[in-house]
């Protein structure tokens, strides 16, 4: 029942903001007038003095945080939207209507059980950024450190749960009453999305995500992550190092600052693929409001990431599978892509490889050797989705977030460097990663990672073997008749003598091997 009431509320907001009228100004001359007449009748006396783009942004804000996030994703797709709508939706990245600063201060004081003046020597009442989940104020600690204070919007959990309940209701309908319901697995996708959103409401988790990303890039200068001030990190409030830079979608400002946009676009591709395939841990909310380009002397022209509430993670299986798929795509080995899909169980085993290979080739081949300005990854994904229906490809919920992030990255790359060849830029990065996974370096890393566990496990092997054999011998004794006992004991004695010497040999072998491994790791 709550879902139905929420649906009614959504329809009311859509109606009051005139979402049904947004397309009218885009009608081309010569189109049938019937559609204009129908939609004009739907106004029912409504008069909209506010521009359509503003109405759309205000409507999404009124609908709540999930719809704001939808607007953030759409704002990066300037290739798909009119300029006025793209520009207005971009405000949802960090210019959502803020909540009252007095409320923010009250939350901070209640969280730390201290007065604001005891926490900060300076605190800006005006938020510098305000998004769907939280808003940010600049401040200064008493020790002189300049910081950014992020405060969670009040009432977020209730607002998100209402929309998640509605989405679950719709997912059940899709799953039970549409032909693609089982293949699309909507309930699992919504469940995955729900986990990410609830994680975003815990700002301590966000701080931990930031620390993990910072560790992952500690030996690289490609990406800067602000330090978290852990003594001031709580569920509703976190305090972090203040960073300085230019928002990545302000291309004119970047050019005025003499930032190399071509290098910046290549670095962005490397950062994304490194996060996904090397670390299996990636920033999954990469709209322009969360990405700056440093304008300080020390890190000039380097990326700065913000807002780590939503991150994606991949298992080793997912990483290996995706890497093989991407490399096969880049090498135009469509048969390999088809084989990987069948081996993974993403498509039924009875699928003909030749048919799947042909379908994938028809989707991907037209887009190779073209700059980003002539490619729409969104169109590629739509065509792949259409092909997936034919072959009953199962949607993988754990990869939906990756697909969203990839669309964000493409949208940013299109603004920075329309001539970017995404394929040729990404291919050497993936090939390098694959070599690290299958070569001698991979063997060394795996031995180093597993050596501690081996040191604990190897001494237990003789005892475990003896116990297993003893249990087997006891079972054999119970199952055999009395006339066979004497013969069994004789054979058992011979067997145990063989096992005894085998155990001694194995123990000596593993002891020597362990010594060699530790010596090698120490000296290499």
């Amino acid at each position: 029942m709550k879902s139905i009431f929420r649906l009614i509320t959504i329809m009311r907001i859509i109606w009051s903001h005139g979402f049904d009228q947004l397309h009218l100004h885009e009608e081309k001359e010569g189109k049938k007038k019937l559609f204009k007449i129908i939609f004009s009748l739907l106004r029912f006396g409504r008069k909209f003095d506010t521009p359509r783009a503003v109405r759309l942004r205000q409507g999404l804000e009124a609908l709540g945080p999930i719809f704001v996030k939808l607007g953030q994703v759409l704002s990066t797709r300037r290739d798909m939207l009119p300029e006025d709508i793209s520009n207005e939706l971009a405000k949802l990245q960090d210019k959502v209507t803020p909540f009252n600063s007095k409320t923010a201060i009250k939350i901070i004081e209640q969280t730390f059980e201290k007065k604001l003046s005891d926490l900060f020597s300076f605190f800006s009442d005006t938020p510098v950024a305000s998004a769907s989940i939280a808003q940010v104020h600049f401040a200064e600690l008493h020790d002189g450190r300049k910081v950014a204070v992020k405060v969670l919007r009040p009432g977020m959990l209730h607002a998100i749960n209402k929309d998640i309940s509605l989405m679950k209701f719709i997912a059940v309908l899709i799953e039970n009453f549409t032909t693609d319901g089982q293949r699309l697995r909507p309930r699992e996708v919504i469940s995955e999305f729900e986990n990410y959103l609830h994680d975003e409401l815990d700002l301590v988790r966000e701080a931990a995500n930031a620390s993990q990303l910072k560790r992952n890039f500690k030996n690289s200068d490609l990406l800067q992550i602000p330090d978290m001030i852990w003594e001031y990190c709580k569920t509703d409030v976190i305090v972090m190092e203040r960073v300085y830079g230019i928002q990545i979608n302000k291309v004119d400002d970047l050019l005025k600052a003499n930032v190399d946009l071509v290098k910046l676009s290549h670095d962005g591709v490397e950062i994304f693929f490194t996060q996904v395939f090397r670390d299996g841990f990636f920033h999954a909310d990469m709209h322009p409001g969360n990405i700056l380009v440093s304008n300080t002397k020390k890190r000039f022209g380097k990326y700065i990431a913000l807002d780590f509430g939503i991150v994606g993670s991949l298992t080793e299986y997912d990483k290996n599978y995706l890497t093989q798929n991407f490399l096969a795509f880049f090498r135009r080995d469509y048969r390999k892509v088809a084989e990987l899909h069948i081996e993974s169980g993403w498509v039924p085993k009875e699928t003909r490889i030749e048919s799947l290979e042909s379908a994938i080739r028809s989707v991907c081949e037209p887009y190779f050797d073209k700059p980003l300005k002539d490619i729409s990854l969104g169109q590629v994904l739509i065509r792949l989705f259409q092909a997936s229906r034919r072959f009953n490809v199962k949607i993988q919920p754990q990869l939906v977030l990756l697909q969203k992030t990839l669309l964000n990255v493409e949208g940013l790359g299109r603004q920075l460097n329309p001539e970017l060849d995404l394929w040729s830029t990404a291919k050497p990065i993936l090939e390098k990663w694959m070599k690290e996974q299958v070569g001698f370096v991979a063997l060394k890393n795996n031995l180093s990672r597993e050596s501690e566990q081996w040191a604990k496990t190897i001494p237990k092997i003789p005892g475990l073997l003896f116990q297993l054999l003893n249990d087997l011998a006891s079972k054999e004794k119970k199952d055999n008749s009395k006339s066979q006992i004497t013969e069994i004991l004789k054979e058992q004695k011979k067997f145990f003598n063989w096992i005894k010497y085998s155990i001694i040999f194995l123990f000596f072998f593993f002891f020597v091997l362990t010594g060699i491994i530790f010596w090698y790791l120490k000296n290499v």
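The longest helix spans residues 482-523. The chain has four domains: 2-93, 157-196, 244-438, 443-523.
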